[in-house]
Each structure stands twice: as C-alpha cells, then as structure tokens.
Amino acid sequence: MIEIISDTIFHLHNEKISYVMHVLPNRQLGHLYFGPSLGHLSANDMDYLTKKENKSAGTVKFFENDGLFTLADRFQELPTYGSSDFREGAFTIFAEDVPLYVDFKVAEVETFAGKERELVKPASFAEKAESQSLRITLIDKQRQLKMEITYTIFVGLGTIARNQRITNLSAEKKQLSSLMSGVLELRNQQFEFVHLSGAWLKERQIKATPLTQGTFRVGSLKGASGHQHNPFVALKAANATNDQGRVYGANLIYSGNFLAQVEMDEWDNVRLMLGIHPEQFSWTLQQGAVFEAPECIFTFTDEGLNGLGQESAAFIEKHVIAPYWQKRPRPIVFNNWEATYFDFDQEKLVALAAESQALGMECFVLDDGWFGKRDNDRSSLGDWVPDPAKFPNGIGHFAKQIHDLGLQLGVWFEPEMVSPDSQLYQEHPDWVVRHPYERISVGRGQYVLDFANPAVVEAIFAAIKKIIVETDLDYIKWDMNRNITEAYSPYLADEGIPQTEFFHRYILGVYALYQKILTEFPEILIEGCAGGGGRYDLGILFYSPQIWPSDDSDAVERLQIQTGTLLGYPMSSFSNHVSACPNHQVGRNTSLAFRQSVAMFGPLGYELDLFSLSAAEKQAIKEQIIFYKAHRQLLTYGTFYRMTDLSQKNEVVWGVSHQEEALIAYFRILAEANPAAEAFIPVPFIDPDRSYLLENEQLSGKVLKQIGLRKPYLFNAVNHQTAQATGDFQSFVYQIKAIKKE
Ligand code: DGJ
Prior knowledge:
Helix content: 10-25%
Bound molecules: (2R,3S,4R,5S)-2-(hydroxymethyl)piperidine-3,4,5-triol
Active site: 479, 551
EC number: 3.2.1.22
Protein name: Alpha-galactosidase
Distance between the termini: 37 Å
Organism: Enterococcus gallinarum
Structural class: alpha+beta
Oligomer: single chain
CATH class of the largest domain: Mainly Beta
Pfam families: Glyco_hydro_36C (PF16874), Glyco_hydro_36N (PF16875), Melibiase (PF02065)
Number of helices: 15
CATH superfamily of the largest domain: alpha-galactosidase from lactobacil brevis
Shape: globular
Number of strands: 39
C-alpha cells in the first residue's frame, strides 16, 4: 500500500484512494494528490505529477536561488508562516520571544505495518495485516528541531490517519504556540465547507458554506469539543449529491479545544487544517522534550454524502471503537432520568426496573441523583457515596435486586465535576479549576475539577471503582454538564508548569481516568454524555463505544440530529431513547410508533414513566422490542443511507442494509393537503440482478432500483379507506429481503 520512489515521492494507496507527497526543491515536504486511487504509478506518471513550471502571477520569490520556486502556491504537508507563503501555517514556534521560521527538511523515511492500541491516548489502531504506515522525519538543523509525521493507510478504506510529534533537540527551551494535527491542500472544486454545528438540544445540524477567498473556521474554546461545533468537517464538491460526487472528510481523534479551518487563496488553492485550538495554548519544549499532536484523519469518497458517512462509519467501527465492542450487541436500556428526575427511591426504581424487564429491556441505568444528598442539581457532585435515604439497604443490595431481575445495571457519574456544596469541595478546595482572582463562575451549580492534577484523577477513580465493585456494574453513563471558565490549574501553578498547557493536560487527565477504569474493568460499557451531545467526538468514542447524542429526545428533532451525526459517525455510536409525550424538551405529541421508528436506528433505549403507559402502549413497546432484537445487528451495525436530500426537511427517509436484509423508514413531519397521488423512493443499495421480498411480495431488483419503493399512500382528503399515513408525524417502515440466488 506504500510506494516510495527515489526517496522523494511517497504514494500511499489502496483500491479506493491515493495520497501522494513529494520532496519539494527546497527539501520541504510537498503534497501532490489525494483522491481516487491512481493504482501503481510509473516513473513517467511521477514526473508528470511533479512537473510545475508555472509560477502563479504575483508571487514573490523569497526562497532559495531558483527563480521558479516559491512556497506561496505549493501544496505543502507542513506549511509554516514566515517564508514566501503568507497564509496561516500549521505550526508556530518561538525561542523566548523570537519567532523561529522553521525550515523542516525531509531527512528520513521508514515504513511499518500495524498500529497498536494504547489506552493512554485515543488514536486509531490496526492489526499488522490491516494497515501500513509511512513515517517521514523532518529536521531543521539550525533550529535543532525534529518533526515526525506518520501517515497510515488502511486496507479497503478511504481514510488516511496522520500523527505528528515534535522534538526539541537543542538545550535551548522552545515555545510551541500552535501545532495543527492535519493539513490538506487541494485545488478548489467549488467546494462547500460542511460542518456539524448547533447548540444544546440542537447538536450537529448539517451546515454548508460555499468557499470564497478568505478563511472560514469552526472550533471550541470550552475545554470540550462542544455543542456548538464538531471536529468533523468536510469539503464537498458543489455537484456532489447524496450518492455521487467528491467529498473530503476530516476529523480529529480528540475531545478538547479544537480548530477546523479552511483558507482559500487568490489562486483557488484550498488549505484545510485541524488541530488543537491555538488560542490559550502554548507548550514548553525543554531539551529533548516531545509534544504529540492529536491524531487527524482525512477521508475521501466519490460516492457523495452517503459515501462519506459510510466510509467514516467503517473506519471508526474498525479502527477507533474498542475491539471488545466491535459488532457486539448493545443492551436495550431503560434510563430513569425523564421518568423520575431526582424523585426516586429504591422501591420506585426496582418497580420501574421490573416493568422494563417485563417489556423486554435489558439494562437499567440509574441516572443522576443517587449519591450524597442530591435531590436537585445544586449539591453533592464529587461525593460518590449512595444516598442512604434513597438506598436504605445500600447500593449493593439495590444492584443485586436489578441483577436478580435478569437486567444489567448502569450508573450515572459526572466524574469531572464538584458541587460547592459537597464534602469533596470542603476537603479539597484546591482541586477546582479556579483562578487566584476571587471571581469564579458557577455553571449548573457546579465547579470543574482540576483534571490536570493526577491526584484528582486518582481520587475520583478510587471513588468510582468502589461503586463498580460494590454493584458489579455493567455500564457507566459518564456525563459532563458544564464547560471550563477562568481556566487555571492550582496544581500546574505549584508545579511551575505554564497555564497555557492546562486545557490539553485537562483532557489528558480525562483520558487517564478512562484508561484506569478500562484497564481494571475492560468489559464495562461506558456511554459518553455532556449535557447531551456536548462532547461527541472520536476521542470519547475511542473509550466509549456510544454517546448520548442530545438532551433533546423529541423524535422529530432527532431526525435532524441523527442525520447530521451520521455524516461523520456510525449508527452504533449514538443511543436513542423513546421518551414521553408531550415531549419534555419541545412539548410535542408524536405517536409511539413514530418515536420507536426513529429510536430504532442505533442502540435503543426507553426513558419515560412506564407506569403511565396504557396497556396498548405497553403491548406496542413489547412488540417493537421483539422486532428490534430480531434486527439488532442490522440496526446497530448495518450500512446507513440517507435517502432524501438535505433540502427535504418535511420528508426524511433512512435506510439500513446488511447483506440480504434491509429496513427503510419513511418519516413525514407535517401532513399536507392533496399530496402527490403516487410517488416512489429510489433505493440506492438494491442489486438489479437479484429478486427481493418486500414484505410478502416478490419483486425484481430492477423494478426496485429503477422505479423504487412505493411511498405510503398519504391521506389526501378522499382516500379515507386506503391512506397508510394520516396526519402529522407519520412513519412507515419497509422490510426488504434479498432472495437467495439459485
Ligand atoms: C444531562 C444528561 O444529558 C441527561 O441525560 C441527564 O443525565 C442529566 N444530565 C442528569 O443531570
């Protein structure tokens, strides 16, 4: 998968993609191509690719003694500001206050197979037979700096992973004030910059901004990837559709402050960069010190937005999600939050658990409020000791009752937080993220613990471990409900470590806690959460195979949230709960069938008061759970297709297929008067040479492919008898099965 030609041209390729780099005339590392596979490249092909004689008009030769050479219009792998290229560079480094205009030259190249999984830091991993890596070492002799960039290509996938680490080889201390993890340079193809932006309760809405000369950026300075923006971004060619056309995806395997930006210059050259946000960041490199940037991944597809979602999902499910959870059935959860909020005791919980078990659910998740004296959100975070008023016989006894029902048990924690009204805070006021100034912001009545301090991480681990052992715990819901303000670590101050390292060290502390839990309890299922989907990223997914995607459980809103999420993340990565009506976030009433049809795409759960359900509703839940169990692997790990265009907001069609089986769900939000009499939904994944069973009707693949699935008959004011969908918030599920070839 890797060709190296005369030590100057590097070609990573498989049957889907090619990524080509070369050594520029000044020995810096240049970029040549990323796109559909070029197969094996001959010497002639290489010559052809590297030939560049036309200097772009208006560029100034500041560099070297070659009238035709300038960095200004060259595609580079590691651009830096300060030479003949005036765009923003990928890294900045100072010695004291003096900028070092680094001149990294290619020094060494090596290749190796496989990529180990290490819990200390999230990154992709692969078996030896599944990946090849190319490590290029760049040296700046004068500034005594070394940069190693490792590119990994994976068997059968359209993704390249990029890792970088910088080493200070000199005795002189240096200051790294920015280091982007990934750079991708492309010629503009009327690109739209696609990003997943939104807010609390409205996460990951797909936004697309056409590029124009200048810079566009999204990012986070909240200490977490955030509700507002997501590190997953893409460049979509203007003519790309759902299923065709070129799209480049990019993501970071990181959960902290990030920046994703795209700059287009006067010659239509596009520079996409992702990495730790340089604001509030600077890292001191003492002699011999190494700084490793988070991993960045770039994905290419020429199969449009569905191709991007599918490539991203395939890569994440194989090379980011923990091997233990890959393809493993996820339990159907009952979560008590929207059923009880803080108002519960053991008796009530056990009754709910018994009812959930009777309906077919498999894991009871005890949410917020079980510890300290927490009857509302103003106290007790940090005191991970069961409330004796709620659990008079101890939490071990409660856990046994749940397990005796044949259910798994999950427990909610918010490990990174502490309430001012808590024993932990009384004992360790210095464990809080807090500037020496008097003012400290309180969010949701709580402070953030200083996870840059290893003693804090250790203490929280000890408290959580006690509960895991006592309850023989199967599942953790790891929440995080406020962001970091007045960022300052008393610990770093004591250690003489600059505060500009705080945000990154904080997130490394979060990863350290994940590492501790998963080292001792490797089979525990951790569900990530941050006030809903405020930390939905590959850093978290490396440890937690699923994340609570939003505090908005309304099925109509979830259609958009899940559609957005599926552009960059797999279906198995979000948990969906059927909740009560009127919905607690938007007050909307939708049918149970509609809610269940939306929630079944991905790991399923229920979060509502089971005792206020009618017998008919309970029966419908029972039946849906039987259906879900029969199709669980398809609905968790199948290939997902969005079958309606992004512009179609009133009708959404989702399909999921795996081998012989497919399920397609048609959703219509608002009813309309006199809709089209008859319409069909094209099915992208049908094999025209096979026959299919649509419910009990045998149809040829050609008919389904060329004509499509007949839409449900919509109520149009005259078809009282035959309408299959009437009124607002309608769903209709089709089952398709390929008939075995003779
Ligand atoms: C925010 C989460 O997203 C909710 O699901 C719930 O766990 C609450 N926190 C509990 O405080």
